[in-house]
Amino acid sequence: MSVRGVPDIVAKVRARVENTWATTVAAEQHPPPRDPASDPASDPEEAASAAGPAWPHRFPVGRSASADLGADFGAYVRQLGEWRDWAAVHDVVLVYATRMVAGTRQQVVSHVVVPDLNTAVRIAGDPWTDLIATARTRAAVLHRQFPDQQNLPRAIRGAAKLSDVDFDVLLRVCGYFLLRVELAHQVDGAGAPPAPPAPLTPRQVPIEGVHAKWLDSHQGLVRTVTGLDNLGLLPPHPARFHFTYLDPDHLAHGGRRHDSYNVGDAALPAYEPRVVLISENKDTAIGFPAVPGGIAIEGEGRGAATIASAPWVRAASLVVYWGDLDQDGLEILNEFRAAGLPVRSMLMDVETYERYQRYGTRLDKNGKPVKVHSARDVPHLQADEVALYELLSRGSAPVPRVEQERIPLDVPATRLQALIDTAADAGAQALVL
C-alpha cells in the first residue's frame, strides 16, 4: 500500500495552496514565459518557495516495501480503486511506478499531479474558492491601477482579506499618497522644485471616509501597494498617562493637582512620590483623598508597560494597584507585576467582592453583557487574588463585575493607609536588623 492516502494528499495540496496562492494569482497578471516540456516539481516541501510556477505539482504518495505490498496486496488493490475514483472526480493525474510484488510486475501509484491552482482549490475546499475568486478580481485592479508595484503577491495577500468597503478605501488611500509624492517632485515655472509636503498625522490625512485607526492598522499594506517606504506620516506620539497629586502640603502651597507623563520624558513630577496608587479608572484617581507623598495614576486599562517605564514610579517605596473586581482588573494586576513592578493590590479579594456584590453589574459601559472567558494564565497573582479570579472565571459568580467606583472612597483610603503603615513598619524593622 502507499504510505500516504487520499486525506494525506488533500492536506498537502491545502498546505501548498496556502503557501503559494498569492504568488500564483500575481503571476496570472503577467505570466512568465514557460517551457511546456519542463517537468513539474517533485516535492512540495522543497519547491514551495523555489522560483518558477507553483503548478502543476507532483505530490509523492510514498513508497511501501515490496514485502508489505505482497503481504496484503488485496488492501492495496482496494486503495488503488480509491485513488482512481478520487483522481477522476478531481481531474488530477496519477503517476505510476513499476514494482515487483510476489514475483510479478505491478503498477503502483507513486505521485499525484495537480495541474493548476483551480484544481488545487477544488481539492482544498473552503474557504479557498471564495478567497481565490476575490484575490483574482482585486489583483487585476491592483495591477491596473498600480502597475509599478514591486510586490504584488504581498499586496494581494493583504488586499484579498479586506471587506469590499476597506478595499475601496485602500485604493483611494494609495492613490492619494502616490499623488502627494508626484506633486512633491514637480518643478515650478522658475525651475525650482517645490518644498516637500509637511508631514501629517494619520488623523490629518484629508481623505473622505478614512479614519486614523484604519490608517494606523493598514500602513504596511499601503506601503506595499504603493511601493513607498515613507508615507510622510509623523510617528505616533509617545505613550502617556495622567496622574493626580495627593500630597496635602503640595496642594496647600498652590501646587498643581493634575499632571501627565510621556514615556521617555526627562521631566519629573513636582515631587518624588513615596506612595504611588494606580487606579484602573479615572474618577477614583482624580477624587482620591489626600495622601502625604502620594500620587494617583489613571491606569485606563492595560497600560502596564507604559506606567512601569516611569523611573519615579519604580523608585517609589510603595506601589499599589486598585482595580475593578472582575477578570479584567485581576489580569491587569498580573500584567503590572509581569512588567517588573512590585505592586501590592488592595480590595481585590473574595471578601471585598462579597461585601459589595450587591452593587455589581452584568452590563458593560455600552449596555452589553459583560463577557466572562475561561481562566487565563495569571502566574503573578497571589492566593487571595487567585481565589477571586477563579470565582469570576467559573461564570457562577452572582455578578461578573463590581466597579471600584461603587466602593466609598473612605474605604480604599483607609486600606491604603494600612498598607503604608505596614510598609513603614517593615522598613523600620529592616533598619533595626
UniProtKB/TrEMBL annotation:
Residue ranges of domain DUF3322 in the record: 48-177
Positions of region (Disordered): 21-56
Location of the Wadjet protein JetD C-terminal domain: 239-412
Residues in coiled coil: none
Cited InterPro entries: DUF3322 (IPR024537), JetD_C (IPR024534)
Pfam family membership, one: JetD_C
Name of the molecule in the record: Wadjet protein JetD C-terminal domain-containing protein
Source organism (scientific name): Actinopolymorpha pittospori
Source lineage: Bacteria, Bacillati, Actinomycetota, Actinomycetes, Propionibacteriales
